[in-house]
Batch of 3 targets.
Target 1
Amino acid sequence: MSISPDTKDRILSTARELFHSRSYADVGIKEICTLARVQKGSFYHFFPSKQDLAMAVIDDMSDDWAHGFVAEAFDEALPPTERLDYMVDAVYYWQKAAKNVEGRMPGCLFGNLALEVSTRDEVIRARLNAVFAKASARFHETLDQAVENGSIPPLDTEATATAMLAYLEGVILLAKTRNDPEVVRILGPGIKTIRIELKPTN
Amino acid sequence: MSISPDTKDRILSTARELFHSRSYADVGIKEICTLARVQKGSFYHFFPSKQDLAMAVIDDMSDDWAHGFVAEAFDEALPPTERLDYMVDAVYYWQKAAKNVEGRMPGCLFGNLALEVSTRDEVIRARLNAVFAKASARFHETLDQAVENGSIPPLDTEATATAMLAYLEGVILLAKTRNDPEVVRILGPGIKTIRIELKPTN
């Protein structure tokens, strides 16, 4: 066991999987080291604290998302409202696949961490908030384009974008509590009906 | 320190407060006993395990809700759509008050626990699922009445009820991540716009 180029990656992917399938507090550094086959010294070389590891896991997952199915869903080539359908479908197939492997629907790692640690770790909370702001910006862009091309009537696109993200997180939360990805499929279409109206200006 | 009639209540209220403001895993039985001023023996007399305590906390909070602001919000004397406004307002003022006291928005204890423990504790997951089903039933009843009195067009009232509950949980999740109850006030009105259409029968 030595500090090889992939040691950091092994720690990251092990931690990400464990945090996601269980919880942040439930997984210790010792367990991560054992499963990733690294010594504690190597671990602390890359991650001085568990908080540093959590930040790296969040960034890692966020990067994967941004370049993976979020990029596909929010592809400018798709009509704006189809992007919302794509996003819901992607969440459904992702959660269904994860449940097939693990027997349990893991939910959204960001949502899980947000509810578990937000009151106790200001640094992690701020990072998760930034991830959500970035996701919300994709919805915002999409809604602005949908209003511009006339496919939806004018509305408060910024607030509605955040509302749609909230809905997606809430649907995942209930689906995880039922341990049933079908909840995502059934409730998913509701995302396109959410509207926050523009405040009257005068 | 002895097993007095209020010993169980002290344990329950202490655990409920700590689980809510932090997390389930973050709070140990020892800390609960110290703060509730009970000995471990008394604790285990009432709660053979931490899981038993969690179940009692969920039931306790669920009872308080059912007889407190959920009963007020879903008062049959209110027009159905006003019940939804009342529910959103109640969540907003509750979270705002909690943040004023603790400096941190605690979110919904049920949602917090659901994301933290659902993959690891089947018993707690099932109990939380029952709490959500009960909450969803209140929305369902309300929507059925709203359709009946013509204040909203026909829709899949059962699925929309669950969608509204999901939205509320998702809004609380994002608000907690921003540590800002105003998110609930701004996104709240969106709840009444969510619709899941009836499947065409043919």
Target 2
Amino acid sequence: MILRLAHVEVAVDDLDAAHGFYVGLLGFVEHSRDGGRLLLRGCEELDCWSLSLVERGGPGLTHSAYRVAVRADLDELEALHARLGLATERLPAGHEPGHGPLLRVATPDGHRSEFVHEIDEIDPYVEGRLALPMRRPAAHPGGVPPTRIDHVSLRVPGVAESLRYWCDTLGFSASELWLREDEQPHIAWIRRQTRSHDVALGEAPEPAFHHFAYAVADAAALVRAADLLGDARQQQRIEWGPGRHGATNALAMYVRDPAGNRLELYAGDYARDLDRPPLRWRVPDYRLQGHSWWGFPAPDSFGETAPLLEPDSPASARA
Amino acid sequence: MILRLAHVEVAVDDLDAAHGFYVGLLGFVEHSRDGGRLLLRGCEELDCWSLSLVERGGPGLTHSAYRVAVRADLDELEALHARLGLATERLPAGHEPGHGPLLRVATPDGHRSEFVHEIDEIDPYVEGRLALPMRRPAAHPGGVPPTRIDHVSLRVPGVAESLRYWCDTLGFSASELWLREDEQPHIAWIRRQTRSHDVALGEAPEPAFHHFAYAVADAAALVRAADLLGDARQQQRIEWGPGRHGATNALAMYVRDPAGNRLELYAGDYARDLDRPPLRWRVPDYRLQGHSWWGFPAPDSFGETAPLLEPDSPASARA
Amino acid sequence: MILRLAHVEVAVDDLDAAHGFYVGLLGFVEHSRDGGRLLLRGCEELDCWSLSLVERGGPGLTHSAYRVAVRADLDELEALHARLGLATERLPAGHEPGHGPLLRVATPDGHRSEFVHEIDEIDPYVEGRLALPMRRPAAHPGGVPPTRIDHVSLRVPGVAESLRYWCDTLGFSASELWLREDEQPHIAWIRRQTRSHDVALGEAPEPAFHHFAYAVADAAALVRAADLLGDARQQQRIEWGPGRHGATNALAMYVRDPAGNRLELYAGDYARDLDRPPLRWRVPDYRLQGHSWWGFPAPDSFGETAPLLEPDSPASARA
Amino acid sequence: MILRLAHVEVAVDDLDAAHGFYVGLLGFVEHSRDGGRLLLRGCEELDCWSLSLVERGGPGLTHSAYRVAVRADLDELEALHARLGLATERLPAGHEPGHGPLLRVATPDGHRSEFVHEIDEIDPYVEGRLALPMRRPAAHPGGVPPTRIDHVSLRVPGVAESLRYWCDTLGFSASELWLREDEQPHIAWIRRQTRSHDVALGEAPEPAFHHFAYAVADAAALVRAADLLGDARQQQRIEWGPGRHGATNALAMYVRDPAGNRLELYAGDYARDLDRPPLRWRVPDYRLQGHSWWGFPAPDSFGETAPLLEPDSPASARA
């Protein structure tokens, strides 16, 4: 059983610039920097990391990863993908730092996913006392800061077909749908936990990467994020927001990192059981009220996507 | 499989006073008022109601109710409680308005629980358009408002024994524990979803009711709640807070309703998988930092509890 | 000595629609509605009213009004305007409800101002106790609410010339200036109290009315305002924001009322003594960072202005 | 004419500890540290500093300082104090770093005040562009941060007598009064600008120092301040709050610095002209609703005061 989104791996072109942006400006917590790879987490996460930034010519996404309930789920998911004729690969414990054995798969809609059960948590105790577990880190008082990974937004060439894989086969549940006039889904928000989504699937000519999202505490944290960018004379990195989404009911702001990857900072959300029917947004509601409950439109650049990149091979494994 | 807390039923002594407080002042959304019973929900809930206030000599709790994944879970839970020698009762669809068939049980630690699968949702569409689903209701712009039911806090005569029932038998997972010097739990926060808790179990001589909690949007909503109470010259209803809990990391305020029931307004929280080990708070951390991260103590009255009341019998069923 | 902006009078085309918007949706406090005139105030004001809405074919501005330190200031201001060859008019106590004797003048840049000393305050006591003076009104818990009038933004055909009147003659102090490449001011923010401005003067071909502004408590109140508009399906009334201004450092949102008048909701600001030199914004900073510290531009419609309307004459005085 | 409170000088026992607390934890901006003196300001102030911390056995207050409109006001104030038989002293430009000539006086109620006109402002431009004037400093993204000095709270042996000096002689205006049953003032909030106060005068057996206050942006900043103290395991420094004052309508939190000085962090406030009559709080309203609009009382330690210390003499002048 899939539990939730666990991490994303995003390509950047300059790891120093990425470090300055994610750690220095926004306040992500650094787990490690090794070779061309920077591993980060939000300040309330106990998982040792949830964002992998690799220096290999970004922007782009190599894969998203999902935690499963027990290790045996990997066998079941391997068999399931084999039955579908999709490539799978087992990677040993430690291939991802702090992670147990992995299953890597090609999805039918052109993406790569990893499944994993064991993810090391950081030790929440210092000298026997709880030391700020899931809290604002005393060691890094600046920044926004982001609290935890929230979702990844993928572009797929057929949302309806993708939902057959993600929902009917993998057990994701659609929380909200934006329907075209022909009642076919144009964007689907799907999840394995009770918030609005782990993954968003949006229609596009080719598989591609739209954005990834981290939660922040509240509206005040979004204001702080926007102010930090303005104060650093980087207001041009803000692509949309802060604003309220109709779909998902979140307060959100989209920011471009120095490599051009789109990061959403996300506050709010709701809880609803997985067996409930999805909320359905219809044209012409969506553009005005589904995307932007406060009415201001996304800029043209919001349609841009980043490519999907090949993950590294075991032969080039990160030791 | 139990999904989450679904509702609580709380006794009040004056339903008009309760209506003024919960609906008029705090901004709960009214589902129905019928006979001596007022059914309410938070403004982001689609479940038709999550709080039942009954006029029968409060303060007190009759029962808490939990949603299960499929109707067949009721049979399984009935058999499980029978094996434990605990009283069970099946109640027909409609016994609780808008609910399907129920299983009512006596818990081994002296409480009453209901399990139910079918709970009607409100229609989120008006004239074919999404009408503020899970949002601030246009029809009720005042109040705080509370967004959704969060948890119930029960007192039990032995937390360790209670955890054997709630966790080992029913499948709840402890997120945080306050341990005594003998390493036995004094308070346990347990859940079936990934937030910190559906239920808190605290040690006490007898089974009793400590409080129930509704989520609010953020710190600003808590400030607004405190201001509304002050403006209405009801500041004496505020028992503790607003303040930050160490355990659960929530911003919270405890308020006494006109009957004396303790309502917690709750902002913040975090997400963590159910299979993770609980965070452990130890004396002397707890009083200073577990309960009150900002250091100010709870008043003596915070130790007071309210009684458990008999639920109505089917013979006196609410038609 | 002029103390501050006291009120503005704005024209609307439908007083019922204005009442629904200002009182019903945004939470302005109603002082009175009489004939074609609705008098309102913010929830923290003790002045009996600060916004006059008149039903006479809006959008448009008839005048802005300023409180003076003593009644004798009216004589001095009358003489001063006479020396400048500008029309003046004395109006008796009660011409504006709750106001003492007024001096009405034509400004050299095409606007009308009123000066007044006596403005009735509401009684802040109920049964001998302070009843929410300068606070959130218990009688009107909905809405944003706006707290107090902040400033009025006028368009004038020559900002440099206007500053000679407003600053050199009347004693206003410029807090911030947006300078053109020739170092001439394009917009000036001027004040008689220590916040950033009572009046903004912006260059335009003809004298005109750009917007008026009310303060709100904080960023959370701006979010609430935007949500209330979205929930009411009036998101199209939001013209810009919520966002951060560079100039004045305020969080702000511009909203069009049903008649088309532009209302700014304004949070933040700072304090600086009147004798300090103005902060100077220069091209190309202004469009990106002076107007929008977060980078998103104002829409084209933000250039639109509303006309200046003739004030009523004493002959048609409001009895 | 006195404009406003300009700075306070507070005694600490350990300047390193003070630096860690004020700069490292809370985010005050450092102007200079020289010998035993640390000069700080809030992040929105252009005045070069507003808080002087001197290492000389705190807690305690040496003096508070007030800015006047023109330098000639010093002569007038010197004559005025001489007529009252009060000691005065002229100090040259540079005695206080970045300040022009000073007048130091003994007040009739046992305090020391300084009056000054010239206070250097920091240069708000970097390479010709406005560099975050009156804003969150990019160079110090952590901390709360405090924005500007707000007020100082003094204890005096007779509030009614003190008001004759501060209001009738110096021209301060009382915004709010807490009256005893005999209608005599027990605490007075007085100001020379339009916010609620520059100075609070509270009744006590001897002249003493109660607290000084800095403004913060909003409720979210207060929550952040409390969290930073909790995260640093310094929650015992929080003496009261965060909470709402009835008098002044501010959100506030009182914190003890490492030397024991009481610092108030203060959000909210209002504006009212100086000629308006004071709001009058009466027993028994004050304790419940004047001090604490949310109802929770101040601890006994809130009655403690710190001593008044002799200012340094010109002979020991800071070169």
Target 3
Amino acid sequence: MSKRILRVDMTKLEAKFEDLPADFVALGGRALTSTIVAKEVDPLCHPLGPNNKLVFAPGLVTGTKAPTSGRISVGAKSPLTGGIKEANAGTSFSQKLARMRIAAIVVEGQQKDHYHLLKVTMDGVEFMDAQKWFGKGLYGVYKDLFKEFGDKVGICATGIAGELMGAASGVCFNDPEGLPSRYAGRGGLGAVMASKGLKFIIVDETGAPGVEIKNQEAFDMGVKKLRDALTTHDVTKPGGALNSYGTSVLVNIINEAGGLPQRNFSAGQDDQSEKVSGEVKADEIKKRGGARPHFCSPGCIIQCSEVWTKPGGKEPVGVLEYESVWALGPNCGIYDLDTIGELNRACNDLGLDTIEAGGLLGVAMEGGLIDFGDGKDALKLMDEIKNKTPTGRILANGAAFVGQAYGVTRVPVVKGQSLPAYDPRAIKGIGVTYATTTQGADHTAGYAIATEILGVGGTADPKDTKKAELSRNLQVATAAVDSTGYCLFIAFAILDIAEGLEGVVDTLNGVLGTNLTVNDVPGYGQSIIDTEREFNKAAGFTNKHDRLPEFFLKEPLPPGNDVFGVTDEELDKVWGG
Amino acid sequence: MSKRILRVDMTKLEAKFEDLPADFVALGGRALTSTIVAKEVDPLCHPLGPNNKLVFAPGLVTGTKAPTSGRISVGAKSPLTGGIKEANAGTSFSQKLARMRIAAIVVEGQQKDHYHLLKVTMDGVEFMDAQKWFGKGLYGVYKDLFKEFGDKVGICATGIAGELMGAASGVCFNDPEGLPSRYAGRGGLGAVMASKGLKFIIVDETGAPGVEIKNQEAFDMGVKKLRDALTTHDVTKPGGALNSYGTSVLVNIINEAGGLPQRNFSAGQDDQSEKVSGEVKADEIKKRGGARPHFCSPGCIIQCSEVWTKPGGKEPVGVLEYESVWALGPNCGIYDLDTIGELNRACNDLGLDTIEAGGLLGVAMEGGLIDFGDGKDALKLMDEIKNKTPTGRILANGAAFVGQAYGVTRVPVVKGQSLPAYDPRAIKGIGVTYATTTQGADHTAGYAIATEILGVGGTADPKDTKKAELSRNLQVATAAVDSTGYCLFIAFAILDIAEGLEGVVDTLNGVLGTNLTVNDVPGYGQSIIDTEREFNKAAGFTNKHDRLPEFFLKEPLPPGNDVFGVTDEELDKVWGG
């Protein structure tokens, strides 16, 4: 059985399997979603109309025993940025699809005012009425669905924020506990899914043949090399930084560097940040009986995830990632993990991107809706979304939208998308990535923090404004990694350990039966970015959109009191503009 | 006394007069606002931040006895389109500025959370506290201000919609009765004014020297030629179409052509439209004791204006223009002049652009907030703005914003600005103008209706999709007219009567002491458009923004059942892209 594309027509409620075209065989994850979106979607179509398409694709090695490779990419034209979007998540949902030899699901057309779920099994595809879950929180819905479809299915969903067609909505996947906590969060793809009338995809892999491996020897050798690298590197090894404290290990580090944005990017450091650090959180989880370390999808070595709960181990939330803790915490002047946990739970329940949620709350606080630091009122704003009030509709559309509604001019977005947890005035390279990626402000697109702060892949002075080359190299490598199905966090190991990178390429050769070398990686990554940039250009983007908002260039950031300072020329050097 | 620029720093609450630079001497109106904005405003600045500038400029012959020349241009970076904006209005305010030899007022900086008024006299400039008028409707406020500053001043204001920083807000000027009914409405310039902390400008021309005329003979000759043309042409002459019925004479004509958009651009014709026609309105005004014909500023020959009132001549609104009647009427499924009058009054009172208001109401109706045709509920939505509720904040930001908040995909905007009263599927040339003007959808930027429907300046089949040349020629000519201070409606006469155009050029030569000929007009207009396009390019606009929304290309418009059908190549031919 060769790899297939499942094409879903929501207008007609029909679906069919197509053979994966020969020229798509070496494409997975982001390479495949971006290629299909670029090929099939009119860049000037309305992102919430029938002519946008929502594409799901597991990575090339996803579903195999390659470690830490359970990522799924979701792509479409973004209602948040207006450009091409790829967001990815780690979830068994992806592994199931891959083992069923489904290279991609392409959802097209539109079913208005009535929601369906799509059940995908080896026997075929079924549309079922999903109207009864309309307007319901995803924690409860996921419980219902697992009861109805069995514990072993994978579930993808759009939530209430998606029903609102909110540009801050994400696409939700299940974690190993069945919680709705793994998100392809960014860019409003939950709204694209909802606009199609598609509420859930349920995947049951019973009888799946598994991923075909064309060169088992190469594959096994690759797995071993990568495993060795991951279990050796200080950031990724068992008992290492990510395993012990999760991504929140960054809280103290970035705060110390003066680059942890506080209260809607008005300062880069606050003594209280330590209260929400990864170290404090890991202690708390141990005390109250959550889980840590923990994987987001089976087969992960790094295991940076966790299950955060209320005291006593009650009401599990799922992971509190660094970005979420920061967005819903210091960026809102909130320094209390339980409040952050409740806000994160609300986001998961509503189908909201946590970064965009923190961004929009920060702007709402600046706009005077509620006070900085008021977690209770922040939770009330989440209820406005749940209740679909006019205020909820404003909030569900993200930080830029809230900024316009309330006349706020300090709005930290690029291409309409909220900035993540690193202030570009204190750490310049990540700012170059925010500005120049095809995705809107996105740290994962070219994680310069690795080099600028963590000393991974070499070192670079965070204050040095010459960062075009660093950002470009990382963006290109990332595009390649995002296509493999490997978690981006393997990059910590493979940037420093050459055999690890070789191992990645070996596993790709194993799956594809190819003879790629590490020298082929940059070209592969660049071609993805070229495809995405071509789409964005046709959607009306120019280098003038590869800029940070004005206030980063004019307002100094305490305590370092820097402005961004990277020239437009340096930004344009990233893609040779 | 030579012509001056009044530069107002709202950060420091300081103002100073500067001599008009030598290279600006031949610039007035739109030529001057666009030149100053392009020269002094960073195209990537936040439109509501301290670095945007709001520029007011009367036209070159404004304040003289040249007929129908009382226009004022207002320019800035637009919070609605993100590009350069010039909106203009006919008002004695402009004539007063011109006679004080103030070529432009440039408002810069920002005063946060406190509103001031600026009083401008021949003795100098004074800032006064305006906080007591915060949140008040402009009909009452204008009464107060005329009482406080005397009947003979001119008043410019931003209203509640501006206070909300709403992108649908306009800049208001007084009409001859002192009503707040003459608007430089488009593009959210009321919000720019409010963002500066500037609530009103009061102009008292006592002691003004008048406009300097360098060649009285040329000027007088020009006035005569233009007067002859205006009093001869069927559209502009006393007792002609505009004089008898106002701009609403178009209702029946455009409805007949199948191009009068009904219910958010879902049809192009409705039998009920006749109930809100100019003919019916003129009869009603006569019955109830309003005024018609009427001028918007002294010295107008055409006198297309009027004073609409409640029955019995009570509660005067001011003019109900064709665009306003359509926007608040048929576009909302409303076919009752009294309801339309009340909605128009609400817009004037709030400081809202009537076209954008009709556009946003149509989208709100499509989004299910209220029903099409429900005027009472439409008035309640206006109250939401007045009360500054969350719904009001959504509405005050215009049709595109409402569309995003409510997940509506049929959103008739170009560059974020609502389409005026001609469906481009039925009348192609005006669609070419909507798409390609620097201003966002704007009929006045190149009024192809004149030729396509009215047979002025030649004839053209409205269904013919080859309209690049027609639109370009009109856009270029319009840019020139918008700089003279003449009302665009003189174009009806001067497009058909060569001596009229000569008269216009003669009056310019009279004021400037130049030897321009009619052959200089296109170059003058083109240079303004070049300046504006350069700004927009630097703000990130490309030919991909010179497009109509997707639905005009896909959804046929009853009853003609055409789609737009003008190719991208034809659109790009307008500016040689």
